[in-house]
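pasting for ref
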Amino acid sequence: MDDRELDEIAASTAALLRALEAFAFIGRRLNPPDLPALLAAVGRPEDPLRQILAASTDWQGPAAGVHAQLREAGTAVVSGFDELRAAVDAGDTLRAFRALRHGPQALEALYALAGVLPPVNRFFLEPAVRADAVLQARFNSPAPNTGVMHGGGDPGARGAFSLYVPEYYVSDRAWPLVVALHGGSGNGRSFLWSWLRAARSHGAILVAPTAMSQTWAISGPDHDSPNLAHILSEIGARWRLDPSRLLLTGLSDGGTFSYVSGLEPGSPFTHLAPVAAAFHPMLAQMADRERLRDLPIYVAHGALDWMFPVDMARGAGGALQAAGADVTYKEFDDLAHAYPTELNVELLAWLEARPRPAPG
């Protein structure tokens, strides 16, 4: 690459990462009445990125692939900000939440450059470990069959799954598994990015399935639990999993289904972590006593949740504890109905500290 191309890469990357961090800041704190204040707080980080995208020239040779990924990621995050601002102008809450879908699209495009651009490599690590040169070096020579992959059909299709295996995977140790379930009308291809930094930083295999129907089988016939068991079996046949650390977690409907499926006597999961989930006391009353006995369950909820009021989560923690589960409860004072990605490192530490024999 010549000096001009290197300068454009540096400028594009810096502007893109700043815009993505601001976009994530809004997504984490999004409570519909607060959106105008959130946008005011971050300013207009998309404007420098927009200018760079408009001014960038066509690159040739090895630089062309880098340019294409940066452009794709940049276009997605600029579109996300445009949609957020249009949602404020129109007073359209649903449009604001749809705008957040641009974030995972940008991250997916950008991740292709993590092995090429050191700032991107660091971006996809948790902030606390970004200065760890030893960890960064572990990504220099990826092992075969690692990184972000998709299985079970087209990425994001009903019943399919997206998967991340750390690039430094080795088969001489057993790895914890996180199965992360998206919210209603979402998909695993997008939700994978809610967890990727933590899994990449702390060494966990991550799978994000997509529900068989529009949302998880919270009521009616359950076609999702057999599919989760099939996915777990398929992953376990290719990579070495720690049978004492198999976490089922999820957001909103995904969190509710982690209760519904995870409390079943035949569930293969050793730990549950529902986030911003609905809960009915009958779930605890009807659950198998042996399944619940000392079952590690981490209940997380936002005090500002407007979809599932926080009292529902408080009641869940108490009912499950009374029924014999080993409950950890965490409430976020500033969280509405959104996913707190900072929780993931804590969940991995909790998973590590509480190994549990696999069911059955």
